[in-house]
Design brief:
There is one protein chain. With about 400 residues, this protein is an alpha+beta fold. The protein contains 10 helices and 20 strands. The strands form 5 sheets. It has a 7-stranded mixed sheet. A 5-stranded mixed sheet has the order 5-4-3-13-7. It has a 4-stranded mixed sheet with strand order 8-9-10-12. The radius of gyration is 25 Å and the shape is elongated.
Length: about 400
Amino acid sequence: MSRQTLTCVLVAAVTFGAPSTLSPAKGARIDVTADALLAAVYEEIIGGHLDAALQDIEGLIRVRPNFRLAHLIKGDLLLARARPINTIGAAPNVPEAHMDGLRAEALARLRAYRERPPADRVPRYLLQLREDQKYAVVVDTRRSRLYLYQNDGGTPRFVADYYVSSGKNGALKVREGDEKTPIGVYHVTESLPRQKLSDFYGSGAFPINYPNEWDRIQGRNGHGIWLHGTPSNTYSRPPRSSNGCVVLANSDLDALARNLQIGVTPVIISEDIEWLSPEDWATERTSFGKELEQWRADWESLDTERYLTHYSKSFSAPNQDLDSWSRHKRLVNGGKSWIKVKLSNLGMFRDPGKDGLVLVTFDQEYRSNNLSNTVKKRQYWLQEGGRWRIVYEGTV
């Protein structure tokens, strides 16, 4: 009976929620992570092989001695030999708040392992990676998962995924101290090695550029949002336990760090990732690319009024609004006999926090009869009344 009870508890944990329909991507890494080992233990429990499960969980503990969840599962396996149990973490005299965090981690890890990103789907947000962006990071706070994608000639290819912890109070950070994780499109700004940090941050940290320009336009504030590791006595933390940062196991952070480019790698944080088929993804990319090309062509045309129709009434730039921007463009273009604009190293990313918002970055080569320069640009495009318009533009 104790074996049957424990099996029922784990079956409920495994099958809770929507049925699994996802599968690992072709060419993805062979999974030898703690998630894979833990899932194997769960499968043995469900199959009624408790002795094998106990042997394997002890093996996992030898590899990860500070993995508290593994110790919890071992305790359940030992307790099930003596009496029936009706929940994960049935050991007596353990603070319930502590157990709740471990149970949440168990469910998050197992669901994510069994519901992997489908091989024929890509995150909607990665419309186009720049040529110099070798990888992209996409975080799903609801699933407590971080996904790593490689830039394969402009097409994102799934490489790996990792369990993460995020803000205690959920997602969509608004103000300093709200203990929420921001939602949006960011990039890694710095690498902070272990030697410069307290043990709390584990093997290192990678700050991101929260608040970005869109956050500031929305009145959001705060600072110090990092990707970082865990204290040396802790393998992982519960899904909702950080002050707003994205936290990984130290071994996972070390693996991820090898693919991060400072100032370059995009980090997109979402509450719930939207997946697209390659065909739908290509259609969205092509459609938005045409809007950007039309803006470029209208600028070259020297038809300033047509060019300005690409800008939102709520447009802003550093120290400018739409009126001052328009006056400046009319004045400048009035002294031009010709303009040539070339865009290269183009990146396009949908913002998961605002429907119909796209961040665009590119290298802009501008030439005219009396001026030539090259700058890095960042724009936010917002869909208004069925049309894309620029709500922010500035140099990087």
